[in-house]
TrEMBL record:
Coiled coil: none annotated. The chain crosses the membrane at residues 6-26, 38-58. Keywords: Membrane, Transmembrane, Transmembrane helix. InterPro entries: Spore_III_AC (IPR009570), Spore_III_AC/AD (IPR025664). It comes from the Bacteria. It comes from Neomoorella humiferrea. This is Stage III sporulation protein AC/AD protein family protein. The keyword Membrane applies. The keyword Methyltransferase does not apply. Pfam families: SpoIIIAC (PF06686).
């Protein structure tokens, strides 16, 4: 029913590592604004990947409890 693909977990972990590296480099270089923008961009990408799974979860809960 709700199958979470393991590759999504690895993609999210890789994204988090990449964003963390960019954030730390930009923060140390004194580019705080760019560091925060990078962090927000990473968060937006992660949400775009996760939101379909959350919608599937809500559909499954709705069907289990027969809420239409």
């Amino acid at each position: 029913m709700l199958g979470v693909d393991v590759s999504l977990i690895f993609k999210l972990a890789a994204l988090a590592i990449i964003i963390t590296i960019f954030y730390s480099f930009l923060k140390q270089a004194g580019r705080d604004e760019y560091a925060y923008m990078t962090m927000l961009a990473g968060l937006a990408i992660a949400l775009l990947w996760v939101i379909p799974l959350i919608m599937d979860l809500f559909r499954a809960v709705r069907s289990v409890f027969q809420l239409y």
